[in-house]
Write a structure and sequence with these properties.
The protein is of the alpha+beta class. The protein is built from eight helices and four strands; from the N terminus they run H-E-H-H-E-H-H-E-H-H-E-H. Helix content is 52%, strand content 13%. The protein is elongated, with a radius of gyration of 22 Å.
Amino acid sequence: MVKTGDQFQKNTAYEHPEKKHFITSSLGYNRVEVDQFMRKLADAPDHIGPKALAEQNFSTSAFGYDKQDVRFYLKQFASYRYRLNHQAEFQDARRAILAEIDLTQTNFSKSLRGYCIEQVDTFLEHQPNLETIASAEFKTQFYGYNKRQVQLYFEALVEKLKGKL
């Protein structure tokens, strides 16, 4: 299926950090400290910056939360919050990229593993609409159309059909 639109979706693990369950290990981070920090993070996620998340320290205790699991989650949470806080900028940049795409020409480059050229060309000949684009599926072939270029083309076409470009 050709992916179009904003692929960013909320993730409950990052929307509700107090509900996150970490793996335990024989020697890990103190559970009480981590749980308190996660509640604090849930109450005021914008008050703790990405750098503070990355540098957050917990004491070590027996049968605590796995250190790698906690570190990984905090890095992912920081990334999620950054993306959430800068979503408008990302969307503006994406619209600028889509606006530059010439919908009158379909000069896709070829890549080693790309979309089947005949299928894409046939699909484009039939004047696709929103419904057909949403349900479009193309086979992959050796030396076919560059998947990223085709996806951007269809995303720009969808935006134009919706009247957003």
